[in-house]
Amino acid sequence: MQHFTAHLHDEEGTAALGAALSRALVPGLAIHLHGDLGAGKTALTRALLHAAGHVGTVKSPTYTLSEPYSIELDGRAVGVIHFDLYRMGSPEEFLDAGFREDFNGDNICIVEWPEKADGVLPPPDLNVFLTVAGHGRDVELQASTALGNSCLQRLKFAPNM
């Protein structure tokens, strides 16, 4: 499986990676975002959604647990659901909320704090690991399925130098 690593020197680098990822999206993709508080998970998601054509506000779904968006890919409306599971008390809350139904092959699901739903969260196609490094971030993208692999093959991103 493919993987990609880079150092993002600043917030603009994170935004550029989000924009590059937006051009590699396909329906059904599940992306798990890993990193400490402040590592840039929401910033990356915000940049991805804006680059994909979402015009409105992109807020962290810390209290609502999920926020749905609609974008257009190849002339087709596609749902993007941004999950933030940080405040979940147990994996069963994920099931009780009916979130598994959103992972249906049509939506793109982006999940912050996936470890909060260990054992019940559908597996990712792509894992994104963000780590604060000085004033920037180190990022690693790991494909774990053929769909994730094809996403990384389409990714065109040169980190800021």
UniProtKB/TrEMBL annotation:
GO terms for molecular function: ATP binding; metal ion binding; transferase activity. It is found in: Cytoplasm. The keyword Nucleotide-binding applies. Keywords: ATP-binding, Cytoplasm, Magnesium, Metal-binding, Nucleotide-binding, Transferase, tRNA processing. GO terms for biological process: tRNA threonylcarbamoyladenosine modification. The keyword Secreted does not apply. GO terms for cellular component: cytoplasm. Its main location: cytoplasm. Pfam families: TsaE. Belongs to the TsaE family. This is tRNA threonylcarbamoyladenosine biosynthesis protein TsaE. It comes from Duganella margarita. The gene is tsaE.
